[in-house]
Write a structure and sequence with these properties.
about 400 residues; ABC transporter involved in vitamin B12 uptake, BtuC
Length: about 400
């Protein structure tokens, strides 16, 4: 009995070491870091975990987080899109120009702005795929070009205000105060997760494939329920469920299903593992490359509308560089590998929570933004170094 126990303990330790070497710890390190950040700021200022501040935080993460989801798609194929901040700014400027200056209906101006972002992203992907020019160079050129077009549309005053009662303004100002909305979303999310996991496990078991035990699934669902109901409790104590957060969660779920449950998602991950191997496996490399930049451009445009909604005006702020840096940092800090092939869209949520929590805590403490940038930079460096050290197949000699 004692030998068997020791054997199981040794096997578990070996599995943990292997998972650590392969970067298989999942979101645990980020969640631990987030818990530490929240505990420190709560100790320094009791208002940090107040319902009001957390509700504001849940809205503030949406603009950058949506852009970061698009960045994840590009990172998964081992590339980088430097144009997302400029496209976000261009989206707001294009919407405001069409709606305010040209009198176009808001809903149509929104569609045009998002379509323009998608078209610009697809253009970047096409040039990169067909010419072989590195993606970061192509998107760097896009950054400059779209920044120029954004400033041209905004005109000499570099700002266009729009209605605070319209569709875009409602993206970040609308709340669902009814308890059924907040608590119902928590129940629905937990139930859907549990049902999907049990169904997937049952199918794999029927095919004789490795699958998660029912007990493990139930424990995970219980942990999700704790988080979901805690969030519902906090939001219900302020103004209810923010529309911005609801849209962001829908974007996360849909993009996660796209990557994990469809052949397209498997093609993206395969391409991240190596272009030549993916080509031999029958992956349409050119199409997949163009498509991920299209997705990145479209989500950058959507994120730009959320940023404009927060300000009720289109300004050059999204194209200044900070949105780009924060979006890439969020994806990497959340666990998406810079080397491609590893990560998920939930990385965007975790990473942007870390970044925005630091910003919120610093603001409450009255600390200069410069300190916030230094701390965020340190966290990003730790994430990048960890990604490099745990990259499968990368020996210390190769890293040197």
């Amino acid at each position: 009995m004692r030998g068997g126990y020791r054997g199981r303990l040794t096997a578990s330790a070996g599995t943990a070491r292997r998972r650590l070497r392969e970067g298989g710890l999942g979101p645990a390190p980020v969640l631990l870091a987030l818990a530490v950040i929240w505990a420190v700021f709560q100790g320094l200022n009791a208002n940090f975990l107040s319902p009001r501040n957390l509700s504001v935080l849940s809205v503030d993460i949406v603009g950058t987080g949506t852009v970061a989801v698009g960045v994840v798609f590009v990172l998964l194929i081992g590339e980088l899109d430097l144009s997302v901040g400029s496209l976000a700014g261009l989206s707001g400027a294009l919407f405001a120009t069409l709606n305010v200056n040209q009198g176009m209906p808001e809903w149509l101006a929104v569609l045009v702005a998002v379509a323009a972002g998608a078209a610009a992203g697809a253009f970047h992907g096409f040039v990169y795929t067909k010419t072989g020019v590195p993606a970061f160079v192509v998107t760097l050129a896009g950054l400059l070009a779209w920044d120029g077009l954004m400033l041209y549309l905004l005109g000499p005053e570099t700002s266009i205000g729009f209605s605070g009662d319209g569709l875009v303004a409602a993206l970040t100002s609308r709340y669902f105060g009814a308890a059924a909305a907040t608590w119902g979303l928590a129940v629905l999310g937990t139930a859907c997760y549990l049902g999907a996991c049990l169904r997937d496990s049952g199918r794999r078991a029927a095919l004789g494939l490795p699958h998660r035990p029912t007990g493990v699934i139930c424990v995970r669902a219980a942990l999700l329920a704790v988080v979901a109901f805690a969030v519902a409790y906090v939001l219900s104590r302020f103004e209810g469920l923010p529309l911005a957060l609801l849209i962001f969660l829908v974007v996360l779920v849909c993009s996660d299903l796209l990557l994990r449950r469809t052949s397209y998602g498997r093609q993206v991950l395969a391409l991240g593992g190596g272009a030549e191997a993916a080509l031999r496996a029958g992956v349409p490399v050119a199409r997949v490359r163009i498509s991920v930049f299209l997705v990145s451009g479209a989500l950058a445009a959507v994120g730009g509308l959320f940023v404009a909604s927060r300000l009720t005006s289109a300004t050059p702020a999204p194209g200044s560089g900070m949105l780009l840096v924060n979006a890439i940092a969020a994806a990497v800090i959340g666990g998406t590998s810079l080397f491609g092939g590893r990560g998920s869209t939930w990385s965007a949520l975790l990473g942007v929570l870390v970044i925005q929590s630091i910003a919120s805590g610093m603001a409450l403490l009255g600390v200069q933004p410069a300190v916030q940038f230094m701390i965020t930079g340190g966290v990003l460096l730790i994430a990048v170094v960890s990604d490099a050290l745990t990259r499968p197949g990368a020996s210390p000699r190769e890293r040197a």
